[in-house]
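Appendix B. Raw example, untouched.
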Amino acid sequence: MKGKNIALEKLASFPDSADIYHAIHLSFDIWVTCPLTSPDDIKNFRNSFNKAKAQRKYKKMQEDKVNVQFFLDAETRAQLKELSRVRRLSTGEMLHDLIVEEYKRYRHSR
């Protein structure tokens, strides 16, 4: 959809994200009602918009986290996956919980 002008180009500035959100919806409504807009363009725009929104939400959730990389042997990795399946957590969440639990035991035993 790059290069497509879908209304409101430089007509207004939007101070907060709610205004931006409403402007996008207004632009989309104007663009969709245009007789020259193909259904494929609309579908591609919706898909791109939803993917970008999901990616932004994911990145926002990851802001306070640090990426850690290390090696585990295959058996330990399988055990971690099994534990995470039982608790219905991701492996990262499971590893976090295990570390927090072990740290609490360590602090309590001192």
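End of appendix B.
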